[in-house]
Amino acid sequence: MRLFLFLLGVNRVESSVRFITFAPSGTRCRIMEGDTVFMAAKRCGVKVDAACFGSRCCGRCKVRIRKAGLPDRHARDEKTFLSPLDRRERTALSRREILEGWRLACMAQPLTDVLVEVPALPKVQLIPTASGKKMPVFECNHAGSEEIPPFVIRKFGASYWDAYQLAPLMSAASALIADSCGDPVCKLPFCVTIEAGAFGAEIRFPEQGHLPLPGKYLFAAAEELVNLPDIDFSAGRIHEVLESVRLLHEVGRRIVLKVEAPFTVLSMLMDTAVLFRALRRQRHLVEAALTKIRRNLVRYIALAFANGADIISYADPSGVIEFIGPKTFCEVSGRETVCLLHEVENLRPGGIVHICGKTSTSLEYMGLCHFDTCVLPGRRNFADALLAIHDRNKVQFTGHNCILVTAAPMLRPEICFLHL
Ligand code: FES
């Protein structure tokens, strides 16, 4: 009998032992109590892409998980072998990815033996610099989609598009998203089309669950750029965004307003092929349009600071070196950014202008600005570090980091200050 019980006990222990196998390496290790896939991978030396060291902020640790011994099509039965999908995973993963069995490694906890497919780490791309030396491109975090997650829409019982267009819903959604991931800052807006829409571009609101997109281009030819209007900040979605900033500031929230750079805005107003042709043949028309866009954006930033925005997150995704090349960057998009920053420098009230790492490294590599770093005491996340240096009486420029990971703890709380 004793022998029987002993065997029973052994069997019970054996059945609770779970294993995780990583593909393509084939590394296999035991799953400890409370392990996430990320923890298990770290323990057994499997590298998973991550910018936030597993603290659930960057959205880069995507892995595809299935129950060991089952084919792919069982990925959707994951309730039986994985912890349920977290809200943050629903934000970071597309619906297609969820259906295909992708999860965030730092959140998914295996409940049984699992097989985990780990994508190869991204290769470091090198880009030319003013000194002739090649430097690594700034790695974008791609922290999932920036759209309003479905749980936020459900919470307010609102129509999907109302939350993109009406200030009370927009501000409440922003606060709820920040709270759900422990982010000290509320970020606005939820798409990149606000500025282009304010200049008159057609913005399409496709089916629910997708981001607003620019529709038909406003300008078909460079000659039409002379018709570019000024922005009316008292109407439309841009007014609602500024109003959201004010509402959030009134209740004591700290706010990041995302602003697109002049070149990126222009690339949403006309076809890129037409824009590049005009840059070669009718550059004066493009430059005049960029100047007009820049002046309007400076006004937008001034209004945002006046309404209570603490941080402007400035990005020029269409105008960085790896997209348009070093020459056009120096002569057009980078130059516009430097002019804009000079104009913003004297605004009061001020705040922080954080320049997206891709744009800030492009500026530095081309010798258009220089940086120095300041290490802050204590353990902080990126938002805390930015807020620690925040001062409404001046404008400070920072860069070489990603505003998408504001809630991520920093191993070394360092701020890079940009100087023109
Ligand atoms: S490591 Fe998972 S979200 Fe950053």
Give your account of this protein's structure:
- There is one protein chain.
- Helix content is 39%, strand content 18%.
- By secondary structure, the chain is of the alpha/beta class.
- The chain has a seven-stranded mixed sheet. Strands 2-1-5-3-4 form a five-stranded mixed sheet.
- It contains 16 helices and 18 strands.
- The protein has helices spanning 2-16, 37-43, 87-92, 95-100, 150-156, 162-165, 167-180, 194-198, 236-250, 262-269, 272-281, 283-307, 321-324, 326-344, 357-365, 382-389, and strands at residues 19-23, 28-30, 62-67, 102-104, 114-117, 126-128, 134-136, 185-188, 203-204, 213-214, 254-260, 311-315, 351-356, 370-375, 380-381, 395-401, 409-410, 414-419.
- Helix 11 (272-281) crosses helix 12.
- The protein has two domains: 16-117, Ubiquitin-like (UB roll) (Roll); 126-419, TIM Barrel, CATH 3.20.20.
- The model is unreliable at 1-15 (pLDDT under 50).
- Strand 1 and strand 2 (28-30) form a beta hairpin.
- The structure holds FE2/S2 (inorganic) cluster.
- FE2/S2 (inorganic) cluster binds at residues 38, 50, 52, 54, 56-61, 104-106.
Helix and strand arrangement:
Layout: H1 2-16, E1 19-23, E2 28-30, H2 37-43, E3 62-67, H3 87-92, H4 95-100, E4 102-104, E5 114-117, E6 126-128, E7 134-136, H5 150-156, H6 162-165, H7 167-180, E8 185-188, H8 194-198, E9 203-204, E10 213-214, H9 236-250, E11 254-260, H10 262-269, H11 272-281, H12 283-307, E12 311-315, H13 321-324, H14 326-344, E13 351-356, H15 357-365, E14 370-375, E15 380-381, H16 382-389, E16 395-401, E17 409-410, E18 414-419
Parallel strand pairs: 1-5, 8-11, 11-12, 12-13, 13-16
Antiparallel strand pairs: 1-2, 3-4, 3-5, 6-7, 9-10, 14-18, 15-17, 16-18
Helix pairs in contact: 7-9, 10-12, 11-12, 12-14
The structure holds FE2/S2 (inorganic) cluster (FES).
The site of FE2/S2 (inorganic) cluster has 13 residues, from loops.
